[in-house]
Structure prediction request, 246 residues.
Amino acid sequence: MMPALPLEGRIALVTGASRGLGRAMALALAAAGAAVAVNYRQSEAQAQQAVDEIIHAGGHALPVQADVSDPASVQRLVATVHDGLGPVDILVNNAGVAAPVPLHEVDLELFDTTLKVNLRSAFLVTTAVLPGMRQRRWGRLIFLSSVAAQIGGIVGPHYAASKAGMDGLMRSYASLLAKEGITSNSICPALVASDMLSGNPRANPALVPVGRFGRADEVAAAALLLASNGYITGQCLNVNGGMYFS
Prediction:
Protein backbone atom coordinates (compact mmCIF):
# COMPACT_ATOMS: atom_id res chain seq x y z
CA MET A 1 0.00 0.00 0.00
CA MET A 2 1.43 3.36 -1.04
CA PRO A 3 1.94 5.79 1.87
CA ALA A 4 -0.23 8.92 1.88
CA LEU A 5 1.33 12.16 0.77
CA PRO A 6 2.57 14.12 3.83
CA LEU A 7 0.22 17.06 3.31
CA GLU A 8 -2.75 15.23 1.86
CA GLY A 9 -5.98 16.87 3.00
CA ARG A 10 -4.30 20.11 4.05
CA ILE A 11 -5.06 23.54 2.60
CA ALA A 12 -2.15 25.91 1.94
CA LEU A 13 -2.15 29.61 1.16
CA VAL A 14 1.01 31.06 -0.36
CA THR A 15 1.08 34.83 -0.74
CA GLY A 16 2.92 36.33 -3.68
CA ALA A 17 2.93 32.93 -5.37
CA SER A 18 2.66 33.81 -9.05
CA ARG A 19 6.42 33.68 -9.60
CA GLY A 20 9.81 33.20 -7.97
CA LEU A 21 10.09 31.61 -4.55
CA GLY A 22 6.35 31.79 -3.94
CA ARG A 23 5.61 29.80 -7.05
CA ALA A 24 8.26 27.20 -6.22
CA MET A 25 6.85 26.75 -2.71
CA ALA A 26 3.28 26.50 -4.00
CA LEU A 27 4.30 23.75 -6.43
CA ALA A 28 6.22 21.86 -3.74
CA LEU A 29 3.33 21.97 -1.27
CA ALA A 30 0.94 20.80 -3.98
CA ALA A 31 3.25 17.91 -4.90
CA ALA A 32 3.15 16.86 -1.24
CA GLY A 33 -0.64 16.65 -1.38
CA ALA A 34 -1.85 20.06 -0.22
CA ALA A 35 -4.52 22.00 -2.05
CA VAL A 36 -2.92 25.38 -2.70
CA ALA A 37 -4.29 28.90 -2.99
CA VAL A 38 -1.94 30.86 -5.26
CA ASN A 39 -2.20 34.49 -4.21
CA TYR A 40 -1.12 37.28 -6.53
CA ARG A 41 -1.54 41.04 -6.67
CA GLN A 42 -1.05 41.85 -10.37
CA SER A 43 0.39 38.85 -12.24
CA GLU A 44 -2.87 37.06 -13.06
CA ALA A 45 -1.54 35.14 -16.06
CA GLN A 46 1.48 33.83 -14.15
CA ALA A 47 -0.68 32.81 -11.21
CA GLN A 48 -3.01 30.93 -13.52
CA GLN A 49 -0.04 29.16 -15.09
CA ALA A 50 1.07 27.96 -11.66
CA VAL A 51 -2.45 26.76 -10.89
CA ASP A 52 -2.68 24.99 -14.26
CA GLU A 53 0.63 23.22 -13.59
CA ILE A 54 -0.62 21.97 -10.23
CA ILE A 55 -3.94 20.78 -11.66
CA HIS A 56 -2.21 19.11 -14.62
CA ALA A 57 -0.11 17.13 -12.13
CA GLY A 58 -3.27 15.93 -10.41
CA GLY A 59 -3.43 18.46 -7.59
CA HIS A 60 -5.90 21.09 -6.48
CA ALA A 61 -5.24 24.82 -6.68
CA LEU A 62 -6.97 28.17 -6.91
CA PRO A 63 -5.67 31.59 -8.03
CA VAL A 64 -6.75 34.41 -5.71
CA GLN A 65 -6.06 38.09 -6.34
CA ALA A 66 -5.48 40.23 -3.26
CA ASP A 67 -3.27 43.04 -1.99
CA VAL A 68 -2.17 41.44 1.26
CA SER A 69 -1.12 44.77 2.76
CA ASP A 70 -4.77 45.89 2.72
CA PRO A 71 -7.02 44.61 5.54
CA ALA A 72 -10.24 44.43 3.49
CA SER A 73 -8.45 42.64 0.67
CA VAL A 74 -7.01 40.11 3.13
CA GLN A 75 -10.44 39.32 4.55
CA ARG A 76 -11.75 38.72 1.03
CA LEU A 77 -8.71 36.57 0.23
CA VAL A 78 -9.18 34.26 3.20
CA ALA A 79 -12.94 33.99 2.61
CA THR A 80 -12.35 33.11 -1.05
CA VAL A 81 -9.84 30.40 -0.13
CA HIS A 82 -12.22 29.00 2.47
CA ASP A 83 -15.08 28.85 -0.03
CA GLY A 84 -12.95 27.47 -2.87
CA LEU A 85 -10.67 25.00 -1.08
CA GLY A 86 -11.35 25.02 2.65
CA PRO A 87 -9.94 26.57 5.81
CA VAL A 88 -6.23 27.43 5.68
CA ASP A 89 -3.96 24.95 7.49
CA ILE A 90 -0.61 26.14 6.11
CA LEU A 91 0.20 29.81 5.57
CA VAL A 92 3.32 30.89 3.74
CA ASN A 93 3.81 34.64 4.15
CA ASN A 94 5.96 35.19 1.07
CA ALA A 95 4.68 38.40 -0.54
CA GLY A 96 7.23 41.16 -0.39
CA VAL A 97 9.20 43.88 -2.12
CA ALA A 98 12.89 44.69 -2.23
CA ALA A 99 13.99 48.06 -3.59
CA PRO A 100 17.80 48.24 -3.56
CA VAL A 101 18.86 51.89 -3.30
CA PRO A 102 21.88 53.78 -1.97
CA LEU A 103 21.65 54.58 1.72
CA HIS A 104 21.05 58.29 1.16
CA GLU A 105 17.95 57.47 -0.92
CA VAL A 106 16.20 55.50 1.83
CA ASP A 107 13.49 57.97 2.79
CA LEU A 108 10.42 57.66 5.00
CA GLU A 109 8.11 56.80 2.11
CA LEU A 110 10.27 53.88 1.01
CA PHE A 111 10.72 52.70 4.59
CA ASP A 112 6.98 52.78 5.31
CA THR A 113 6.07 51.11 2.01
CA THR A 114 8.55 48.28 2.58
CA LEU A 115 7.29 47.58 6.09
CA LYS A 116 3.69 47.74 4.88
CA VAL A 117 4.18 45.18 2.12
CA ASN A 118 6.69 42.89 3.86
CA LEU A 119 5.74 42.98 7.54
CA ARG A 120 2.24 44.39 7.92
CA SER A 121 0.95 41.94 5.29
CA ALA A 122 2.32 38.97 7.24
CA PHE A 123 0.55 40.19 10.37
CA LEU A 124 -2.73 40.77 8.53
CA VAL A 125 -2.90 37.40 6.81
CA THR A 126 -1.74 35.51 9.89
CA THR A 127 -4.36 37.26 12.00
CA ALA A 128 -7.05 36.30 9.48
CA VAL A 129 -6.23 32.58 9.42
CA LEU A 130 -5.28 32.03 13.07
CA PRO A 131 -8.79 31.67 14.54
CA GLY A 132 -9.48 28.64 12.37
CA MET A 133 -6.08 27.09 13.10
CA ARG A 134 -6.62 27.55 16.84
CA GLN A 135 -10.07 26.04 16.66
CA ARG A 136 -8.74 22.97 14.82
CA ARG A 137 -5.57 22.93 16.94
CA TRP A 138 -3.36 22.47 13.89
CA GLY A 139 -1.48 24.97 11.79
CA ARG A 140 1.78 25.87 10.13
CA LEU A 141 2.92 29.48 9.89
CA ILE A 142 5.91 30.05 7.59
CA PHE A 143 7.47 33.47 7.10
CA LEU A 144 9.85 34.29 4.25
CA SER A 145 12.49 36.35 5.98
CA SER A 146 16.03 36.97 4.72
CA VAL A 147 19.68 36.82 5.66
CA ALA A 148 19.32 40.62 5.62
CA ALA A 149 17.63 40.36 9.03
CA GLN A 150 20.86 38.85 10.38
CA ILE A 151 23.68 40.66 8.58
CA GLY A 152 22.06 43.69 6.93
CA GLY A 153 22.07 42.30 3.40
CA ILE A 154 22.55 44.16 0.11
CA VAL A 155 19.17 45.89 -0.32
CA GLY A 156 19.14 48.45 2.47
CA PRO A 157 18.03 49.19 6.05
CA HIS A 158 14.37 49.42 5.05
CA TYR A 159 14.40 45.83 3.80
CA ALA A 160 16.54 44.49 6.65
CA ALA A 161 14.22 46.09 9.22
CA SER A 162 11.12 44.59 7.60
CA LYS A 163 12.63 41.11 7.63
CA ALA A 164 13.95 41.40 11.18
CA GLY A 165 10.46 42.43 12.25
CA MET A 166 9.09 39.35 10.52
CA ASP A 167 11.41 37.12 12.56
CA GLY A 168 10.22 38.78 15.77
CA LEU A 169 6.62 38.24 14.74
CA MET A 170 7.36 34.59 13.99
CA ARG A 171 8.96 33.97 17.38
CA SER A 172 6.10 35.57 19.26
CA TYR A 173 3.57 33.34 17.49
CA ALA A 174 5.79 30.32 18.16
CA SER A 175 5.93 30.97 21.89
CA LEU A 176 2.23 31.76 22.21
CA LEU A 177 0.88 28.91 20.08
CA ALA A 178 3.22 25.99 20.79
CA LYS A 179 0.69 24.19 22.99
CA GLU A 180 -2.08 24.57 20.41
CA GLY A 181 -0.63 22.41 17.66
CA ILE A 182 0.51 25.42 15.62
CA THR A 183 4.13 25.89 14.63
CA SER A 184 5.69 29.15 13.49
CA ASN A 185 9.01 29.38 11.66
CA SER A 186 10.95 31.55 9.23
CA ILE A 187 13.00 30.73 6.18
CA CYS A 188 15.95 33.08 5.80
CA PRO A 189 17.29 32.77 2.25
CA ALA A 190 20.29 34.56 0.81
CA LEU A 191 20.88 35.45 -2.83
CA VAL A 192 18.47 33.00 -4.42
CA ALA A 193 18.18 33.30 -8.20
CA SER A 194 14.85 35.03 -8.88
CA ASP A 195 13.32 38.08 -10.54
CA MET A 196 13.90 40.03 -7.34
CA LEU A 197 17.59 39.15 -7.31
CA SER A 198 18.09 39.98 -10.98
CA GLY A 199 16.97 43.55 -10.26
CA ASN A 200 19.73 44.12 -7.72
CA PRO A 201 23.06 45.23 -9.24
CA ARG A 202 24.86 44.40 -5.99
CA ALA A 203 24.02 40.69 -6.23
CA ASN A 204 27.14 38.63 -6.87
CA PRO A 205 27.65 34.89 -6.33
CA ALA A 206 31.11 35.70 -4.99
CA LEU A 207 29.36 36.95 -1.84
CA VAL A 208 28.15 33.41 -1.12
CA PRO A 209 30.67 31.03 0.49
CA VAL A 210 29.44 28.05 -1.56
CA GLY A 211 30.19 30.09 -4.67
CA ARG A 212 26.78 30.24 -6.36
CA PHE A 213 23.30 31.67 -6.06
CA GLY A 214 20.67 29.53 -4.40
CA ARG A 215 17.82 27.88 -6.31
CA ALA A 216 14.12 28.36 -5.73
CA ASP A 217 13.61 24.63 -5.28
CA GLU A 218 16.09 24.65 -2.39
CA VAL A 219 13.94 27.21 -0.58
CA ALA A 220 10.81 25.25 -1.48
CA ALA A 221 12.31 22.15 0.13
CA ALA A 222 12.72 24.12 3.37
CA ALA A 223 9.08 25.22 3.23
CA LEU A 224 7.97 21.63 2.72
CA LEU A 225 10.01 20.52 5.74
CA LEU A 226 8.43 23.16 7.98
CA ALA A 227 4.94 22.42 6.69
CA SER A 228 5.38 18.70 7.35
CA ASN A 229 7.06 18.83 10.76
CA GLY A 230 5.18 19.49 13.99
CA TYR A 231 8.25 19.56 16.26
CA ILE A 232 10.16 22.46 14.69
CA THR A 233 8.93 25.85 15.90
CA GLY A 234 10.41 29.26 16.65
CA GLN A 235 13.28 28.70 14.24
CA CYS A 236 14.81 30.63 11.37
CA LEU A 237 15.88 28.05 8.81
CA ASN A 238 18.91 29.48 7.04
CA VAL A 239 19.03 28.61 3.35
CA ASN A 240 21.96 30.90 2.64
CA GLY A 241 24.95 29.09 1.18
CA GLY A 242 26.96 29.76 4.32
CA MET A 243 26.54 33.55 4.45
CA TYR A 244 25.47 33.44 8.08
CA PHE A 245 26.08 30.76 10.70
CA SER A 246 23.62 30.29 13.56
Observations:
- The domain at 11-239 is CATH 3.40.50.720 (Rossmann fold).
- Residues 216 and 228 are 18 Å apart (CA to CA).
